[in-house]
Write a structure and sequence with these properties.
Elements lengths: L12 H15 L5 H13 L1 H18 L8 H30 L1
Helix pairs in contact: 1-3, 2-3
The protein binds zinc ion.
Length: about 100
């Protein structure tokens, strides 16, 4: 009776991490319908990830309207570094999924 259960965290941080990994595919509409559904389900209960989606969208929109020679080098380095890290993570995830399928 004295033990109060925490119901504040319906999903683990790992799921939020997966959401950030899927972000670019979500925004380019490349997710499979079922994955997209899970993605949107998560967004419905996770304000953190909604904020991240919005930030991401704004960033993409802002950079898309700039020609590459108009982006300050520092910003471009940041974006490239970010994308490279992202790509590495996505690649790792793909290999992980493939290994799961093969098992
Ligand atoms: Zn989340």
């Amino acid at each position: 009776m004295a033990k109060a259960k925490t119901t504040q965290r319906p999903l683990s941080a790992k799921t939020c991490k997966q959401i950030t990994d899927l972000m670019v595919h979500y925004l380019t509409d490349k997710l499979r319908p079922k994955v997209k559904q899970d993605f949107q389900k998560h967004l419905a209960i996770c304000p953190d990830c909604v904020a991240f989606v919005n930030t991401y969208k704004t960033t993409v929109k802002a950079t898309a309207t700039l020609r590459s020679d108009e982006i300050p080098p520092k910003v471009r380095d940041n974006v490239l570094g970010f994308l490279r890290a992202k790509l590495r993570r996505v690649t790792a995830l793909v290999f992980f999924l493939l290994s799961q399928l093969a098992a």
